[in-house]
């Protein structure tokens, strides 16, 4: 039974001020009702043209009831029809998450339907994690909007953040009626996001699992998958990947392309849940109208001020996107360069770079050989190819090089240009291999995906390595440019094998007078590592397969 309507109305009145947009924090519980309710406090003023607001119960698939709310344009009536925007709530949040933006959309002539996905808060059912039941729910929500509001069946869009973003892109695959999507801080490849490099993302999965139990009712399938994932059940790796693939827009790329929805994707360079690589790969394979935006920050942090009703670039572009593709407004967004990037080291006042496609972001890949000694004793980065060297590190001890803490580190990068830092000279070479370049005479504009190739010889059949790329100043202080984990299994101890690893894509300017450092160790608090006690890992550069780092650069 739903809580009293009065509790629901009182809660919504303060929702925008209390809202924390990222998935770790959930809103206070709120009641729902299908009858009209008072408009959210502070969001409306008297006047016939003001949008109307009501809480609703929406029949979902397999008999569940989804809790939601609807904003309708104030001049509705007389058979007039409006474009409709469906807003699925983020993971662990509920439908009042979008109330500030929904009201603005309705004032601009949209019917806006926000809903809490099944299994969370007071929506019935169990959490399906963008599975088949969630897909059926999306169609049911659209059916309800067409039957119960003055929505135009030919102008249907979806906009969402985080979990809502993933549901939006999946909705473009499973319901042909969806004509436009704006997905912010979402995913394209779920397995490739939280299991990148075959390494479980510990902090991300604990966050998602913990908030699911706090704010909802995980399905038995999700509970089993989460348990196997956190237990590093590599014997079930194929099953875990298949579960994630079933919930990944990339799996349904052909269906999305056939349906032809206009899709805008916006994420952050440092997204702790959904790294940028998987989204850029997906974007390149979309055939319809499309747009890709990357900004500094972590999961949902670039969109947060917009959820609070404040000016926000991401939300402004999402509004322009649906205005053009649902209302036909000639606002120029279709004529802009479709790939828009904000440099992590650039000015907060602007600094967007436009490109015709993702592959155009990088104008050259500079391959730097990994040598046998650096300025402090481990390896040289760059210069002539150097082969025949070997360097061994121990495992299970954190060298001090790491990706930081979920949310906190990347917010520091977004707000203060302060990503995780290390003192490169003080990194213990017993547990970290370090290669450094010479000092650069000019700015190095890193754009895209750095790649590492090295020969690795393990002492055990299973293990994990972490690669980090740092911008190092004259004092030896390194700022993290990018990183990535990799876990290997079923290797023959003592036998070398080649490792190719893509670091997370980024946009970062290394100043003149600085150098690059590549650091490889075996422990990072962001991930679950799998190195047996007393194990070691040896890196080498055979003459017939030299080791190298490829740095993506933009020349102009």
Q: Key terms for this structure?
A:
six-stranded antiparallel sheet; globular; alpha/beta; 556 residues; ten-stranded mixed sheet
Characterization of this structure:
With 556 residues, the protein is α/β, with parallel strands linked by helices. It is 24% helix and 27% strand. Helix 4 (132-148) packs across helix 5 (163-174), helix 5 (163-174) packs across helix 10 and helix 7 (202-215) packs antiparallel against helix 8.
Q: Kindly report how far apart the N and C termini lie.
A: 62 Å
Overall helicity: 10-25%
What structural category arises from helix and sheet content? Answer: alpha/beta
Sheet with most strands: 10 strands, mixed
Number of helices: 14
Radius of gyration: 25 Å
Task: Indicate the proportion of strand residues.
Answer: 25-35%
Give the total of beta strands.
Answer: 24
Q: If you average the pLDDT, what whole number results?
A: 89
User: Which parts are unreliable, with pLDDT below 50 for 5 consecutive residues or more?
Assistant: 1-39, 41-48
Describe the global form: globular
Oligomer: single chain
How do the strands of the widest beta sheet line up side by side? 1-2-4-3-5-6-7-8-9-10
Task: Give the SSE map.
Elements: H1 5-13, H2 15-18, E1 52-59, E2 65-72, E3 82-88, H3 99-107, E4 111-115, H4 132-148, E5 151-161, H5 163-174, E6 178-184, H6 190-194, H7 202-215, H8 220-230, H9 237-245, H10 253-259, E7 262-268, H11 276-284, E8 290-295, H12 304-307, H13 313-327, E9 339-342, E10 352-355, E11 364-369, E12 379-380, E13 390-394, H14 408-416, E14 421-423, E15 433-436, E16 444-448, E17 451-458, E18 463-472, E19 477-488, E20 497-502, E21 506-510, E22 515-521, E23 536-540, E24 548-553
């Amino acid at each position: 039974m739903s809580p009293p309507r009065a509790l629901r109305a009182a809660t919504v009145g303060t929702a925008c001020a209390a809202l924390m947009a990222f998935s770790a924090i959930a809103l206070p519980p709120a009641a729902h009702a299908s009858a009209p309710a008072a408009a959210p406090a502070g969001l409306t003023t008297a006047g016939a043209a003001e949008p109307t607001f009501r809480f609703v119960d929406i029949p979902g698939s397999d008999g569940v009831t989804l809790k939601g709310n609807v904003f309708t344009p104030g001049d509705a009536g007389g058979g007039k029809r409006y474009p409709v925007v469906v807003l699925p709530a983020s993971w662990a949040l509920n439908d009042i998450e979008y109330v500030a933006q929904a009201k603005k959309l309705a004032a601009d002539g949209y019917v806006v339907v926000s809903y809490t996905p099944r299994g969370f808060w007071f929506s019935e059912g169990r959490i399906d994690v963008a599975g088949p039941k969630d897909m059926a729910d999306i169609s049911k929500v659209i059916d309800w909007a067409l039957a119960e509001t003055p929505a135009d069946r030919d102008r249907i869009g979806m906009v969402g953040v985080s979990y809502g973003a993933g549901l939006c892109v999946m909705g473009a695959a499973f319901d042909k009626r969806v004509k436009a999507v704006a997905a912010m801080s979402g995913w394209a490849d779920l397995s490739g996001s939280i299991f990148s490099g075959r390494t479980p993302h510990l902090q991300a999965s604990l966050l998602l699992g913990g908030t699911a139990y706090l704010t909802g009712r995980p399905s038995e399938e999700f509970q089993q998958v989460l348990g196997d994932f956190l237990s590093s059940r590599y014997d079930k790796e194929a099953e875990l990947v298949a579960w994630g693939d079933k919930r990944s827009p990339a799996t349904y790329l052909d269906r999305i392309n056939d349906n032809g929805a206009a899709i805008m994707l916006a994420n952050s360079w440092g997204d702790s849940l959904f790294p940028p690589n998987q989204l850029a790969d997906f974007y390149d394979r979309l055939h319809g109208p499309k747009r890709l935006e990357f900004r500094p920050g972590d999961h949902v942090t670039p969109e947060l001020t917009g959820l609070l009703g404040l000016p926000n670039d991401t939300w402004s572009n999402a509004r322009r996107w649906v205005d053009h593709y649902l209302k036909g407004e000639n606002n120029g967004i279709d004529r802009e360069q479709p790939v828009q990037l904000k440099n992590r080291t650039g000015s907060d006042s602007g600094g967007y770079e436009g490109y015709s496609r993702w592959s155009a972001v990088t104008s050259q890949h500079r391959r730097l050989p990994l040598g046998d000694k650096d300025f402090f004793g481990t390896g040289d980065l760059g210069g002539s190819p150097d082969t025949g060297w070997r360097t061994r590190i121990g495992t299970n001890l954190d060298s001090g090089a790491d990706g930081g803490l979920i949310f906190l580190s990347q917010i520091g990068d977004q707000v203060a240009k302060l990503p995780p830092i290390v003192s490169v000279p003080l990194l213990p070479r017993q547990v970290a291999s370090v290669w450094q370049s010479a000092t650069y005479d000019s700015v190095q504009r890193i754009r895209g995906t750095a790649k590492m190739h090295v020969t690795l010889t393990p002492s055990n059949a299973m293990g994990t390595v972490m690669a980090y790329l740092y911008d190092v100043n004259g004092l030896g202080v390194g700022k993290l440019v990018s990183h990535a984990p990799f876990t290997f299994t079923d290797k023959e101890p003592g036998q070398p094998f080649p490792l190719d690893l893509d670091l997370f894509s980024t946009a970062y300017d290394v100043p003149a007078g600085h150098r690059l450092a590549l650091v490889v160790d075996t422990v990072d608090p962001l991930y679950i590592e799998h190195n047996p006690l007393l194990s070691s890992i040896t890196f080498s550069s055979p003459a017939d397969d030299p080791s190298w780092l490829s740095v993506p650069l933009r020349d102009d």
